[in-house]
Amino acid sequence: MNYIKHLNGVYIQFSKDNRLNPTHISLYIALFQLWNYNRFPAEFHISREEIMKLSKIGSTATYHKCIKELNHWKYIIYKPSHNPFKGSKVKLFNFESSYNEDINLNNSLNEQALISNININKHNININKPIYKKEILNFFKKKNWPKSEAEKFFNHYESVGWKKSNHQIENWQAAAESWMLKLEEFKVKSRKKSKTNENDLPLDHFQDNLHTNQNKNYDEPL
């Protein structure tokens, strides 16, 4: 299952299907997110409350209407459960070009678009961006790295659109490894420094030619 190819494929279908409104798309993306978290099983259980929260749907009637329409239009297969202790089941179709099953999206759609015909520029696609901050916190915790560094890492790259040297980050885990290695290098340099000026500013991850490591007194005349 290719995350990017699937989303590109389904977005093509969205753009061609005039029956859809933003609520349908929001609901589908919420279902896709759970499908992703469950590692793309053939089908999986869902909770109405959880899906409504993820998709920002406030009305139960709207939720039922949209999920039934997505099922009718063959974006998903929805198997409702009338047992309050047992969630409904959902199956999502794979919209990759390698998907072998025939998916007919009714009369308003011309034909299934093939993702293989799309020219994907990897430099413009954030292939492995963390979706939630929790992913980064868990990764740093697993590595026994400080939580504070996880916070700094997330806040920095979130603020720059997950880019490094004007290129989209394709693997945030590798970027995190580099982040911690750079931190260790700064610590080693700091320990080796025999004479430390008390007015020096502390080293950080983003020191460059626009920064100074001296606290200047601007009250003194030039």
Automatic annotation (TrEMBL):
Protein name: Transcriptional regulator
Chain spans, region Disordered: 190-222
Organism domain of life: Bacteria
Biased composition (Basic and acidic residues): 195-208
